[in-house]
Amino acid sequence: MKAVHLCIFALLSFLYLAGLLFYWQNRELEHSRLSRIVRRDSLVANFSGHQEPLQKIIKAAEQNLRLAQAIRVERVELFEPWQLVAQTARFFNDNLSREQAKKLAHLITKKAENYRLDPLLMTALISQESAFRADAKSPVGAFGYGQIMPATADDLGVNRYDPEENLEGCAKYLAQQLARWRRSEDPVSLALASYNAGPGAVARYGGIPPYRETRTYVSIVTARYETLKQASREQKARNRRLTY
Questions:
Q1: Residue 166 Cα distances to 21, 41, 57, 198, 232, angstroms
Q2: What's the confidence (pLDDT) of residue 78?
Q3: Is 137 helix (H, G, I), strand (E, B) or coil?
Q4: Options 28, 113, 129, 226, the catalytic residue
Q5: What distance in Å separates the CA atoms of residue 209 and residue 201, rounded to the nearest whole number?
Q6: Using an 8 Å Cβ cutoff, are 197 and 41 in contact?
Q7: Could you give the domains of the chain?
Q8: 129 carries an active-site annotation
Q9: In the predicted model, what is the mean pLDDT of residues 192-209?
Q10: Confidence check: pLDDT of 96 > 90
Q11: Contacts of 69 (CB under 8 A, 6+ apart)
Q12: Model pTM above 0.90
């Protein structure tokens, strides 16, 4: 009888392990399929490398902490919104001089305001897309500050190789996605997901697609946006104290 029980246990163990192996194989196949869809559907590509999602999120959290600390160190007497954008640009791209960062910050602020965007949201997005490098190019061919793909540039009517027009395309496309999902519970997250994976993927899944890259991207950009908004609130409160 013990032998029979052992045989049954061995058989069940084998079936369990076989089922587990089948599950993981299909999971990897599904992830591979979704990755192909991302590459096919994405209108704008994420410039970051091929680190695992958890590593990316940890790195981004560390960057956000250092960014917040750097911004506090560089506080100015009377704060203007573009100054926070300039500080962020220099934090991610230390090749920028103060004058270059100032010029870039004014451009980002202007483009964002033209499309009724929060400049800080656009700043958070660009920090992840290109780290404020005008010549940034991704492995799939996205280019510039906003990592604009060729087809996207054509649809938006911009020259993606011109830095100012690249920012124009970035602002316009982000504004389009915010307008698309304005009635949703979280239009910012869905707009960012659309920017990364394409609005078709967001519509198909009824929310942020289950792509590891896209979910990581949305988490990083939204967290950075919150970091910048908190810094802005602190600076504005400081302005009020200084002017009284």
A1: 46, 20, 27, 18, 25
A2: 54
A3: strand
A4: 129
A5: 6
A6: yes
A7: 42-243 (1.10.530.10)
A8: yes
A9: 96
A10: yes
A11: none
A12: no
